[in-house]
Amino acid sequence: MRNKIVAGNWKMNKNSAETAELIDDLISTVKPASAEVMIAPTFVNLAAAVNKLDGSSIEVVAQNMHFAESGAFTGEISGDMLRSIGIQTVILGHSERRAYFGEDDALLAKKVDAALKVGMRIIFCFGEELQERKAGDHFNVVERQLKNGLFHLNASSWGQIVLAYEPVWAIGTGETASPEQAQEMHAFIRKTIATAYDESVSQKVTILYGGSVKPGNAKEIFSKEDVDGGLIGGASLVAADFAAIVAAAQ
Ligand SMILES: O=C(CO)COP(=O)(O)O
């Protein structure tokens, strides 16, 4: 049985007071779950979130990190810094990082190595854009992103990897991939990993779906065989919605 995960990517939302308030609401609304539950507030609120959730089953994770251990990289945050405040998991390769901050596959491969080096677990995001899907290129795009970002790793490192398929056209648009489209791509991802590694690596890796997951569609998407939970944007900012999505992952 694969681990199920429901993770909330808060993106650049919630100041310090709002973060504390949403966490209080999550503590009272998210029911104990068989899925792992994670939230990713902004960097400045991570330490406070870790302290507030000490002893809770909700894990606090980071939205990004730099590939270097330290040095002259003004405005950046290293994996060691994240570890030092109790963060064990980092999201890498989100489409917004790729699109707005120029993060390409080669840079992401360096970030993956850096995160593993400090013992972090990685939620690695990837997915095609609308024109790529329309052109029938989505499988090639996803295969390329996986290959360039992750396939240099040894099989033994895959225990630290969680995948998040997020078709760019479904992020923040209200347009969700249909459960069938999600399943089709997740099965393709598993097949691609089995070819590059073996069946045991591909069957063990948790693959999340992300893109306009809401309380109303979560259960159907999560019920698909190769969908092991979700990476949630907008709906993770409303405690009742996030709690309902966590419940849908049982
Ligand atoms: O980008 C996402 C999660 O990382 C998905 O965002 P939405 O759920 O707002 O579409």
UniProtKB/TrEMBL annotation:
A Pfam family: TIM
- The answer to keyword Cytoplasm applying to this record is yes
Q: Which keywords belong to this entry?
A: Cytoplasm, Gluconeogenesis, Glycolysis, Isomerase
Q: What class of enzyme is it?
A: isomerase
Query: Where does it primarily localize?
Result: cytoplasm
Q: What's an example GO BP annotation here?
A: gluconeogenesis
Pathway where this protein functions: Carbohydrate biosynthesis; gluconeogenesis; Carbohydrate degradation; glycolysis; D-glyceraldehyde 3-phosphate from glycerone phosphate: step 1/1
N-terminal signal peptide? none
**What is catalyzed by this enzyme?**
D-glyceraldehyde 3-phosphate = dihydroxyacetone phosphate
List all membrane-crossing ranges. none
- The UniProt annotation places substrate binding at N9, W10, K11, G172, S212, G233, G234
UniProt superkingdom: Bacteria
The entry's family comment says: Belongs to the triosephosphate isomerase family.
Q: What is this protein's function per UniProt?
A: Involved in the gluconeogenesis. Catalyzes stereospecifically the conversion of dihydroxyacetone phosphate (DHAP) to D-glyceraldehyde-3-phosphate (G3P).
Question: What is the protein named?
Answer: Triosephosphate isomerase
Species this protein is from: Muriicola soli
